[in-house]
Specification:
Blueprint: H1 2-10, H2 17-33, H3 38-73, H4 79-110, H5 113-120
Helix pairs in contact: 2-3, 2-5, 3-4
Length: 124
């Protein structure tokens, strides 16, 4: 189990790079779909906040990976030391997920239904 979790962490399981591409694409689409006004500015501000949050979470992921590597390199590694790193990471991940979800709903509230469908498609 530990090896699987470590592999997921190292390979970027839930990391920020995929979401950063999605946010960049969404920003471009908003610029095309929504006329240039204060509402578009608010939407782009929300997407910028999402990007900033995803970048911060990427740093958390890298720090957790380094911490885990350091602990695992110790010949006298303890389960408690590993658990501390995992618990901290998962707590931070929970906050990240909640904040990103809140930002998504904020973005949805800033758009009309038609704009939302043009940006994300009818199934979004």
């Amino acid at each position: 189990m530990l090896i699987a979790l470590f592999t997921i962490l190292l390979l970027g399981g839930g990391g920020g790079s995929g979401i950063l591409d999605f946010i960049a694409d969404t920003q471009d689409t908003v610029k095309v779909v929504v006329e240039k006004d204060d509402r578009r500015k608010e939407m782009l501000g929300t997407l910028k906040a999402m990007k900033k949050r995803a970048n911060a979470h990427g740093k958390v992921l890298r720090r957790s990976s380094r911490d885990l590597n350091r602990v695992l390199a110790d010949d006298e590694v303890t389960e408690a030391a590993i658990d501390t790193i995992w618990y901290r990471y998962f707590a931070q991940r929970e906050v990240y997920n909640r904040e990103m979800l809140d930002l998504r709903f904020q973005l949805r509230d800033q758009m009309t239904r038609e704009e939302w469908e043009q940006v994300f498609g009818e199934d979004s």
